[in-house]
Amino acid sequence: MNINTFTNISVCFFLIMSFLAPTISASETETVTKHLWLNLDKTNNQCPEELDYFPEGGLRTFYCHAKTFLSYEKLQQLSPLPIFSKGPHSKTQLNLAAKNDFGYYNKDFVKWLRENAIPAAQNPRFKALTRSLYHQYVKPLARAYYVVHERLMADSDYLQKEQETYFKLIEAQSLPEYYVDNYFAELIEQGFNLMSSKPACRFGFGA
Predict the structure, then answer these.
(1) What's the rounded Cα separation, in Å, for the pair 75 and 67?
(2) Neighbour count for residue 29 (Cβ, 10 Å)
(3) What are residue 162's phi and psi, to 5 degrees?
């Protein structure tokens, strides 16, 4: 997956939000996504059941704020493709409480997302307009996910072994709570934020 840090976190960020309905025009997709990027500093926590660590939290915290302007339902309306190929999420609702199952993203949706939901990737002027917002609200989380991804990909044998163990525990419904947290200690020692490092490791292992 050779994408830069900005694209990497943008994809992750939009993946955590979503819904399934008729396809909407490319111009509306651009309008909605640009509005979100330009107003990251005006978001509010839309998940009252979740503690709010924004902008220091992980992707779920980020999702709970981005949901102010782009809900799971709206993202699926914008997309011509289903967001998930399988998992606990329905076409109209995310199930974030499932402990023995998780959503598998539709790879074609991810490709569509990269091409349509990151305006700054193709628009230098828009990139300049959102640079300060990116640095304040996205970059710290982006760095954590990027570092985790690079380290996991650097040792494919280790990653495969750990993933196999992880999936077996899920299948047997015996996955210990906070199991993947064992992998984030080194990041904390290097100065990464606790609340972004933990979910980055979970995401890397497919949690």
Answers:
(1) 10
(2) 20
(3) -70, -40
Comparing 200 with 85, the larger pLDDT belongs to: 85
| Rounded Cα distance, 43 and 74, in Å | 16
Q: How far apart are the first and last CA of the chain?
A: 18
Which tokens sit at 98? 């499932």
What are 68's two structure tokens? 């102010």
Q: Is the pLDDT of residue 26 over 90?
A: no
Task: Provide the 10 A C-beta neighbour count for residue 181.
Answer: 15
Summarised one tens digit per residue, pLDDT across range 67-114 is 999 988 888 888 889 999 888 988 888 887 887 777 888 889 988 888
Prediction pTM value:
0.69
pLDDT digits (tens, 9 = 90+) for 115-172: 888 888 888 999 999 999 999 988 878 887 787 778 778 888 888 888 888 888 878 8
User: How many Å separate Cα 87 from the centre of its chain?
Assistant: 16
- SS3 labels along the chain: CCCCHHHHHHHHHHHCCCCCCCCCCHHHHHHHHHHHHHCHHHCCCCCCCCCCCCCCCCHHHHHHHHCCCCCHHHHHHHCCCCCEEECCCCCCCCCCCCCCCCCEECHHHHHHHHHHCCHHHCCHHHHHHHHHHHHHHCHHHHHHHHHHHHHHHHCHHHHHHHHHHHHHHHHCCCCCCCHHHHHCHHHHHCCCCHHHHHHHHHHHCCC
Under a CB-based contact definition with an 8 Å cutoff, are residues 41 and 127 in contact?
no
